[in-house]
Every structure is written in structure tokens, then in C-alpha cells.
Amino acid sequence: QVQLVESGGGLVQAGGSLRLSCAASGPTFSSLHMAWFRQAPGREREFVAAISWSGGSTDYLASVQGRFTINRDNAKNTVYLQMNSLKPEDTAVYSCAGGWRWKGPYNYWGQGTQVTVSS
Asked: What is the pLDDT of residues 4-24, one digit of tens each?
């Protein structure tokens, strides 16, 4: 069983930056494809970014392309989401997920971390 724990959320002004971390337990992290999702109040959960098990492939939601970067450190069992040029519409609970297939379905989910961007 893999457990995922996110950290790094908080309150930031528009234009600012945050780096989210997702720490995984268990020996299988380096075999998992990982992703970040977000859910704003009253909205459906949406895909934000994904990274393959090796880090060789990434994919992004169009609206965050060029502002957000996903990367991973398999030695530390951690995946990151660097978020720059944040906008109020990026406000959401961000969750990480891991799975055995590229782009899903995802088998493991974290609890999420709140990101709030003020205007």
C-alpha cells in the first residue's frame, strides 16, 4: 500500500509562487506514474499535471502550461509541483495521485493541501 502526503500549500498573492510536495511511503514509488489534481469549491476535480515513473514524460493542463512544473526525486520518494505566476483562479485543494498506468486510472491519492491565491 502506498500512502501520499502533500505539503507546501498556503496563501499567496497573485503573481507569487509556491512549491507543493507529495511524499510517498513504500518501496514502489519509483514505479508509479504520478500526477497532481485540484478541486475548487463547487467545481469538479481537474487534472493539473502528470509525470511518468522515470520523469521522462510530463503533461499539463493547458491553463498552467508554462507556469507550473512537475518533477520528482525517486531517491526521496517525492513528487513536486512548482507553481509560478499564480492567479486567483488557481485557488483550490491540490492533491497528488499515483498509478500504474500513464495518465490513469490512479490507484493512490493524498488528502490534499489548500492553495489560496489572493488578488
From this structure: 999 999 999 999 999 999 999
Q: Is 53 within 8 Å of 65 (Cβ atoms)?
A: no
Contacts 24+ apart (CB under 8 A), 102-106: 102/33, 102/50, 102/52, 102/57, 103/33, 103/35, 103/50, 103/59, 104/35, 106/35
| 69 contacts 59 by C-beta, under 8 angstroms | no
Is the four-CA dihedral 60, 28, 77, 54 of positive or negative sign?
negative
Cα–Cα distance measured from residue 12 to residue 95, given in angstroms and rounded to the nearest whole number:
18
Phi and psi (nearest 5°) for 109? -135, 145
Residues 6+ apart with CB under 8 A from 17: 82, 83, 84, 85, 86
| Residues of the chain above pLDDT 90, percent | 95
